[in-house]
Task: structure prediction
Amino acid sequence: MERRIFLRLRHRVKAHTGDIITIGDAAQIAGQQKLKKKLSALPLYKVTKKDKNIVVLDIIKVLKTIHTAFPALDVQTVGGAETIVEIHYQKKQLSAVLFVGVWLLLFIGSCLAIMNFHEDVSMREVHIALYEIITGERNEYPYLLQIPYSIGLGLGMIVFFNHIFKKRLNEEPSPLEVEMFNYQLDLDHYVAMHENEETMKDLHDR
Amino acid sequence: MIVSILFVMFVGLGGGLTVGAGFVAFLTVMGIVPRLMQLTKTMRFVQAYEGAVISGAVFGGWETLNMNHFFLSEWLAVPVGLLAGMFVGMLAAALTEVLNVLPILAKRIGFGSKIIILLMAIVFGKIAGSLFHWLYFIHHS
Result:
């Protein structure tokens, strides 16, 4: 009988305090059905209050647990070397004041930024010149050019982020979603290295 | 005389070459053309888009130096303004500051699901700031 099992750690597991994470929670397992079931139920880690927000489970820890229970089993691991356990607490209700504050901050900030940009690149002179090129008349206040320009500014941003036309145009992720994903990946990478005592060792620290 | 003419031509060509290369490099970094092609699924027209950017830059450069007048309807300024605004808006959206600030902000304050509303704050801020600038600010500065 072949006593071999394949194991792949999940990237991210969500848990609450008091939960017991089993091997089946932390990893995908492939192998003989009976063995798989027994292995899946094996407790790996108990989440306590002390763990705060994040715990990193190393592959070695998983292998140790399996080895103590099934010493003769041949475990082949595939993929990443650690699982990040995200511990969720009862979420505090988001304060509306804070949200409005951030919204206004971004709003006013964008206002100022675009005005500074216009002054910086002499946008007004360019608009006046552009209007003169098109119509042949000089107009110090070419609103006919400037109001559509202002609306176009917003439209261009929306097109770039593709939030409103998402369903209609296509379903590829928007640059913002990609950026958020990358940011999360960077965070995960950092956490996997720094929250995991096993990855670093100081020889003189005995 | 001929030497100085040739020298001036050389300097002009060199300057144009550098500015043109810089412009294209800037556009490439911003990734606006790929984004538009991705949205409209028209990857096969890549060279036509290149041509559009180049001819636009050359035409704009020529016009800033010569100011030819076309004597067209003033209503033509509306689509021109709209397209110009959209281009600048896409540039503003592509700036990495926006792309980097929003995920961090959303993560820090726990607004993950409301990021679209925060994005809208920036979009409306741009529109309002621009309108305020043209309709009020320039009269009072």
Observations:
- Chain B touches chain A through 72 residues (CB under 8 Å).
- Chain B has a mean pLDDT of 87.
- The first helix of chain B runs from residue 2 to 30.
